[in-house]
Specification:
It is a single chain. The protein is of the alpha/beta class. It has 7 helices and 5 strands. α2 links the parallel β1 and β2. α1 runs parallel beside α3 and α3 crosses α4. The longest helix is centred in the middle third of the chain and has 17 residues.
Length: 153
């Protein structure tokens, strides 16, 4: 089955992919919290967690994310994982140029200017992400004013 056939089989609704880079097996509690919050605030939103291992090929990760048919990609980044994330961010943006990429986590908090300057990054979340990500999803779905600021972004 091709990637496009798998994408067609996904349920309807806004697709949110939440990714994080890890060196050792880990559970992304923060992303699980964002997932639960988004699902509660916006019924029908599809959320997929996409862990990225230090051994994963960037093109393979990007293809895996594309198969999930995202409307928004959220990346949780720690400062020590920012440089290893670079090829993954670039591969995702290259394969999905029209899908916005939002980066949050410690990297975004301590280095917001460096983070938003990355060519693959469209939005940076500084601080808790629950309300900002729901606000961005609503904006992308056309449910809020496109020019109104979203606190935290």
């Amino acid at each position: 089955m091709s990637a496009s056939e798998r994408a067609v089989d996904l349920p309807s609704g806004f697709g949110l992919v939440l990714a994080f880079y890890y060196r050792d097996p880990a559970y992304a509690l923060g992303l699980a919290t964002l997932s639960a919050y988004a699902k509660r605030a916006i019924p029908g939103v599809r959320v997929h967690l996409a862990p990225i291992s230090q051994h994963d090929d960037a093109a393979t990760v990007a293809a895996r994310v594309r198969e999930l048919a995202p409307d928004l990609i959220g990346i949780s980044a720690m400062s020590p994982t920012w440089l290893p994330l670079d090829p993954h961010l670039r591969a995702m943006k290259s394969l999905l140029p029209d899908v916005p990429i939002l980066v949050g986590g410690y990297q975004a908090i301590v280095s917001a200017d460096e983070t938003i300057a990355h060519p693959a990054v469209d939005h940076v979340c500084v601080g808790d992400g629950e309300e900002p990500i729901v606000g961005l999803i609503r904006r992308l779905r056309g449910e809020s004013d496109a020019d109104a600021p979203i606190p935290g972004l």
